[in-house]
Design brief:
Shape: elongated
Strand content: 5-15%
Helix content: 25-40%
Radius of gyration: 57 Å
Number of strands: 17
Structural class: alpha/beta
Distance between the termini: 178 Å
Strand order of the largest sheet: 1-14-13-17-15-16
Bound molecules: iron/sulfur cluster
Number of helices: 14
Length: about 575
């Protein structure tokens, strides 16, 4: 049945250079004298070491446990002795060291006990845990832990499981050879993923420049899973990008900042499903991967290489020519120059290309942008690379984000077509790394601020609690001082006694009032006695006159008394006869 295909926007058609490395079957690379196994080989958390110097390990033994849900375990690629757990140069453009378990192989290649499982007898959660603990990650180059992608969206039914065999990067043939040689295992691995996701349909996309791989996969599908569809997609870079392949096979456009599961689609690389099958059905964790050795070498070929093998020893297998001047990890479009061949092969190492001035001539000098728009035409994510370039160059990182720099998959199509030879992707990588660095700084500053505010809040709370305690203590002391004497027990004060007490109190009050009144009277009398009489300090004449008046008054008083008692006549004090009563008298 012919499948309907859709086009994705943009893309380029560089020379593929794939044929040179597919003449020989996959070779088994020998074990090196020392393996440098990085503990952090996937996106997400860095596994913590479970071994130390001096330990002996068996092949497949866990040496780094996943430390988070988005993380994947790491295992010893062979049996031997742990020489050290120490930093070693990493397979990264920066060349910065990363923590590695250094193992000296003992040559026996002795396996730990392998425990195959039947995934159908286990709960999906348990299967995902087993995949995480087996170190299964995306082997297309992204190294995203696969178990984390195997949880279907709740709201949307899983329509399509897309298996990515496109391998669109020039020179690279590791997936091609894997499909040719191990198609059955890939198809069985797909079955596991399909069941975990309950996917309605399986679509296996392979670029049409790999006819042998297409044939091998079709044959395996016919035997093992006839309802899967192997689809040959047009060779156009970057058809192997997940969003581009989903678009080509299903017609669904995954919008920026959305996950494909929200549209009912999930995508995995062929090598990823292969390792998942080996992990569950054979109990073999991810210990090696297939690496394409190609470019300016005498013997281009694919090799199965133990993880941790120094690239120098791997490259030697291909016999690089004398004029080889550089080595790329990954393809020429998205790869990077290996800063140090002592860096080890990791799960993301899909290809090593020896470069030479003839193969990769030095780029012509960068010229000013002429705003031709060619870069925008080929961008598969419909970005405006020239705008991103201007803003990155001007360090206007806010604007680069407004122009969706994080939607850029760094496919390199824009750089490939730029007539001014501007290394656009390098500008974008620079801008992204600066934004990430600033974001990390901001997060660190926010965390410090939060800690500071929490500390202040705690100090204030403690201060308030202390003040409250002191206030309560002071209040208690004041209450003790003002408290009335203890009331006597009720039996000591019967009602009759209370009445007597009231009477005594009123008598006392009356006596007090009387005393006060007596005191007032005494004071009044004292005052009166102290006042001078108006007859004081009279002259002698006045005294005599008064005495005379008093005498006459006394005499008259005596006469009146006599008359009253019958006496006929009286005599005045001067001897003169006094007229009887009733006669006119002249005084
Ligand atoms: S292709 Fe190059 S020169 Fe043309 S617009 Fe883009 S950046 Fe400018
Ligand atoms: S590198 Fe980024 S901007 Fe350039 S074409 Fe690819 S996705 Fe577009």
């Amino acid at each position: 049945m012919l499948a309907q295909l859709f086009r994705f926007k943009g893309g380029v058609k560089p020379q593929t250079n794939k044929a040179i490395s597919v003449h020989e079957p996959i070779g088994q690379a020998p074990l090196p004298a020392r393996l440098f196994v990085p503990l952090h080989q996937s996106i997400g958390g860095a596994p913590s070491p479970l071994v130390q110097a001096g330990d002996t390990v068996l092949k497949g033994q866990l040496i780094g446990g996943a430390d988070a849900w988005v993380s994947a375990a790491v295992h010893a690629p062979t049996s031997g002795r742990v020489l050290a757990v120490e930093p070693h140069v990493a397979a990264h453009p920066s060349g910065l060291p990363t923590l590695c378990v250094v193992i000296e192989p003992d040559g026996r290649d002795e396996w730990i006990e392998r425990r195959p499982v039947d995934h159908r007898s286990l709960a999906p959660e348990r299967v995902r845990e087993l995949l995480r603990d087996a170190g299964v990650v995306g082997l297309g180059g992204a190294a995203f832990p696969s178990h984390a992608k195997l949880t279907p969206a709740r709201a949307v039914a899983m329509e399509h499981l897309v298996i990515n065999g496109a391998e669109c990067e020039p020179f690279m043939t590791c997936d091609d050879m894997l499909m040719r040689e191990r198609a059955d295992e890939i198809v069985r691995g797909i079955a596991i993923f399909r069941e975990l996701l309950s996917a309605r349909e399986v679509l296996i996309g392979i670029e049409d420049n790999k006819p042998a791989a297409i044939a091998a996969m079709q044959e395996a599908v016919l035997r093992l899973a006839p309802d899967y569809r192997v689809v040959a997609v047009p060779t156009r870079y970057p058809a192997g990008g997940a969003k581009q392949l989903i678009r080509v096979l299903t017609g669904k456009e995954v919008p920026a900042s959305r996950r494909s599961t929200e549209l009912g689609v999930q995508c995995f690389n062929v090598a990823t499903v292969y390792t998942a099958y080996r992990a569950l059905t054979h109990g073999e964790p991810v210990l090696s991967r297939i690496v394409t050795l190609t470019g300016n070498v005498e013997q281009p070929r694919n090799w199965e290489v133990s993880l941790g093998t120094p690239m120098r020893e791997v490259v030697a297998l291909a016999r690089p020519r004398a004029d080889s001047s550089s080595f790329l990890m990954g393809g020429p479009m998205m790869g990077f120059e290996i800063p140090d061949l002592d860096a080890p092969v990791v799960k993301a190492t899909n290809c090593i290309i020896a470069g030479s001035p003839g193969l990769f001539p030095p780029p012509p000098p960068e010229m000013p942008c002429i705003r031709c728009g060619a870069c925008a035409e080929v961008c598969p994510h419909e970005l405006q690379p020239f705008e991103l370039y201007w803003f990155s160059r001007a360090r206007n990182f806010g604007k680069t984000q407004e122009y969706y720099i994080f939607d850029c998959i760094e496919c390199g199509c824009c750089s490939y077509v730029c007539p001014s030879h501007i290394p656009l992707v390098q500008y974008f990588r620079f801008a992204k790394s600066e934004i990430w660095a600033r974001e990390r700084e901001k997060q660190a500053a926010d965390a410090a601020k939060e800690r500071f505010e929490l500390r202040n809040a705690r100090a204030e709370r403690e201060q308030a609690e202390k003040a409250e305690r002191l206030a309560r203590a002071a209040s208690a002391r004041t209450s003790e001082k003002k408290a009335p004497p203890e009331p006597a027990p009720a039996a000591d004060h019967p009602p009759a006694a209370a009445g007597e007490a009231a009477t005594t109190a009123s008598e006392a009050e009356a006596a007090k009032k009387a005393a006060i009144a007596a005191a007032i009277e005494r004071a009044r009398l004292q005052r009166e006695s102290a006042q001078p009489r108006n007859t004081d300090r009279l002259s002698a004449g006045q005294q005599r006159e008064i005495a005379a008046v008093e005498a006459r008054r006394a005499a008259r008083s005596t006469a009146d008394t006599t008359a009253t008692t019958g006496t006929a006549a009286t005599t005045d004090p001067g001897g003169a006869a006094v007229a009887p009563a009733g006669s006119q008298r002249d005084e």
